[in-house]
Amino acid sequence: MKKLSLTLFIIILCITGFGLSIHGKSAGFINLVHEQDERFHVVRIEGFNLEHPFFGLAFHLNYDEKLFEFDHFTLGDYFTTENDPLTLVSKDQNESKIVTGLSLKRGQLIDKSEGTFLKLYFKKKIYDPSIYGFVFEQGVFSTFDKERMDIENVEFGTV
Question: What DSSP line would sit under the chain, residue for residue?
Answer without folding.
Answer: -HHHHHHHHHHHHHH---EE--TT---EEEEEEEEE-SSEEEEEEEEES--S-B-EEEEEEE--TTTEEEEEEEE-TT--GGGPPEEEEEE-SSSSEEEEEEEPPTT--B--S-EEEEEEEEEESS--TT----EEEEEEEEEESSSEEEETTEEEEE-
